[in-house]
Write a structure and sequence with these properties.
It is built from 4 helices and no strands. By secondary structure, it is mostly helical. It has one domain. The chain is elongated, with a radius of gyration of 18 Å. This is Integral membrane protein.
Length: 107
């Protein structure tokens, strides 16, 4: 069997464009939209704690960026979300590849 060489962009796209990765990124986007609504549109004393959920949904990677200066923390959250989506995509590709190989060898 010949291995086809992929460019880094093709590999990145292959790991990021699958149901698991896209679902995770949609979840992160929904949580951050909720955080923004709670912080800016809902006046109550607990609204300042809503931002914790944005970090929890991208933890543990986003927690590495908490020690940085303020603007870099937000970049860190975005980087953490994409990094974890890539890891989920790699796991998805690995599992579906194993299932596919097991199905073809049993036949």
């Amino acid at each position: 069997m010949t291995e086809q060489k992929r460019s880094p962009i093709q590999a990145f796209r292959r790991l990021l464009v699958n149901p698991v990765s896209l679902g995770y990124l949609a979840l992160v986007a929904a949580v951050w939209a909720w955080v923004l609504v709670m912080t800016f549109l809902v006046p109550h004393p607990d609204a300042s704690l809503a931002g914790v959920w944005g970090f929890l949904v991208t933890a543990p990677t986003s927690l590495l960026f908490l020690g940085m200066s303020s603007p870099l923390v937000w970049v860190g959250v975005a980087v953490a979300a994409v990094f974890q989506a890539l890891l989920l995509g790699a796991a998805y590709r690995g599992i579906t590849g194993l299932v596919r190989r097991a199905g073809t060898s049993a036949a």
